[in-house]
Amino acid sequence: MRSISTVVLFAIFTTAAVAEPYEMTSLYRAGNWQTSLVHDTISGNLRCEAEVSGRGSQMFSIVAYQKAGLKGFFFDTSWSLRERNVELRVDIDYEAWRIAGRAKEISVAFNVPSDDSGIRFLRQLSRGNAIALYTMEEERLAVFPLKGSEGAIRSLMTCWARISDEPSSQPRSDPFAPAVGETDPF
């Protein structure tokens, strides 16, 4: 009996000692959306994510990288995609967007343009009712509700502005904390 309890305690302590590579801080949650700040504890990089879950194992997210632009991702753990470039159709309230993406394993990723079309895409996303993913042959693969997306996108952009202001050499692990030398009355 003693050896079983020793094995169980060893397993608990070993599991607790392994550090997670990502620290997530929830910034916003409303409707079907959540926005988070993600700190990669290995590289030190930060990113902001706004995501919504769909049916089953499906998820859609917009990710703002500290040292790069915005990317969109469609995930489905039931997919087994070979790595390649793909064309997809994304509908926001039945307005179609033709988008070039990159398929790999369980996801399709695409760049959100930094020009007026990207702004229009984000505006529609934040004001829409639903976003759907289709193949170019019009096979619907996923649908996601957009309730709560306006606040999530706003929170994402605020988060991105905060982490983009960070010095590239050594980002703070909490960019929402007061800067060095500021006072925090709370």
Q: What does the model show?
A:
With 186 residues, this protein is of the alpha+beta class. It has helices at residues 2-17, 116-127, 149-164, and strands at residues 22-30, 33-40, 46-53, 58-65, 70-76, 81-92, 95-105, 107-112, 130-135, 140-145. A 10-stranded antiparallel beta sheet has the order 1-2-3-4-5-8-7-6-9-10, covered by helices on one side. The longest helix has 16 residues, at 2-17.
Please describe the topology of this protein.
Blueprint lengths: L1 H16 L4 E9 L2 E8 L5 E8 L4 E8 L4 E7 L4 E12 L2 E11 L1 E6 L3 H12 L2 E6 L4 E6 L3 H16 L22
Helix pairs in contact: 2-3
Summarize the structure.
By secondary structure, this protein is α+β, with helices and mostly antiparallel strands.
- Outline type: globular
Per DSSP, the total helix count is 3
The run of helices and strands is HEEEEEEEEHEEH
* Arithmetic mean of pLDDT: 83
Question: Could you give a short account of the major beta sheet?
Answer: 10 strands, antiparallel
Structural class from helices and strands? Answer: alpha+beta
Overall radius of gyration = 20 Å
